[in-house]
Write a structure and sequence with these properties.
By secondary structure, the protein is α+β, with helices and mostly antiparallel strands. The protein is 27% helix and 27% strand.
Length: 280
């Protein structure tokens, strides 16, 4: 944790959306990935503070949501992204150069290179996760376990025969857990490769990935033998998550971002909760 902050801070760092940083607040080494965990269900004051940093286009997108809860979560997610991006780049959140590509996917509009910062994000329910690293692409995905799904039908439609057999050989509770482990792994890989919907999930197999949260494992893809480093993690009780990164082994730093009125946003080490179950 000591290397994370550019200054040697012993106490949690407080970020303020209105700050005007002249240099990056965080140290991000080339072999590191910072994984941020936050809630999208925030107090009205926090949402208002974050909304001030949004671009005109982002505000217009937020206004198009039919339900207030969906609008609030969109504002929270984009505001938190700008807060973090600004802290990495040494600029105000509103000045963070966030662009939008195909299907509305956000990215940092800056020159590529070994020091360039890339990010990816995923949200499920009230949770959001952001992943940042330098010089290489990455993908992250989180999902909440949902026992209402027909995992057999979905697995036979989208997964390989080996993956489906692995899922169906388990007890009911373990079946749902393994299904969502595979789903998040596949989504993270697709996002890391930048293939989006053009790479069918059945085209690669993740059944060789063991059940080893927070331990790096290698996944070899295709005839070119492209290797990704994949990591599984637990963002909250009844949730699963996966991260896929290119460019060799990395060290993950999991961080928690919480609203602490009136100080601002408090950053502290993230501690994985226990308990896996389904909602129905």
């Amino acid at each position: 944790m000591a290397k994370f902050f550019k200054s040697d801070r012993r106490r949690p760092l407080i970020l303020n959306p209105d700050q005007r940083a002249s240099q990056s607040v965080f140290g991000l080494e080339r072999d590191e990935v910072h994984v941020w965990h936050a809630s999208l269900d925030l107090p009205e004051g926090a949402v208002s503070d974050l909304e001030r940093s949004l671009s005109l286009d982002e505000r217009e997108r937020a206004a198009r949501f039919r339900f207030a809860a969906d609008r609030q979560r969109f504002v929270s997610g984009r505001g938190l992204l700008r807060l973090l991006a600004g802290a990495y780049l040494g600029c105000a959140p509103a000045a963070a150069p966030i662009g939008y590509g195909a299907f509305g996917k956000p990215y940092l509009a800056m020159r590529s290179g070994p020091e360039a910062i890339a990010f990816n994000l995923s949200h499920a329910g009230a949770l959001v996760v952001f992943a940042f690293r330098r010089g290489h692409a990455l993908g992250v995905d989180i999902e909440q376990l949902d026992c209402r799904l027909d995992v057999s039908q979905i697995a036979h439609q989208y997964f390989t025969a080996q993956e489906t057999a692995d899922i169906m050989a388990r007890s009911t509770q373990e079946r749902y857990l393994r299904f969502f482990e595979f789903w998040t792994l596949k989504e993270a890989v697709v996002k890391a490769l930048g293939k989006g919907l053009t790479l069918p999930l059945r085209e690669f197999d993740v059944s060789a990935i063991g059940e080893a949260p927070y331990q790096a494992q290698s996944l070899w893809l295709g005839p070119a033998k492209l290797c990704l480093s994949v990591h599984q993690f637990t963002p909250a009780a009844d949730y699963v998550g996966a991260l896929a990164v290119s460019g060799g082994a990395v060290r993950l730093v999991h961080l928690d971002l919480r609203w602490m009125r009136p100080q601002g946003w408090e950053i502290s080490p993230f501690h994985s909760p226990g308990g896996i179950g389904c909602y129905s």
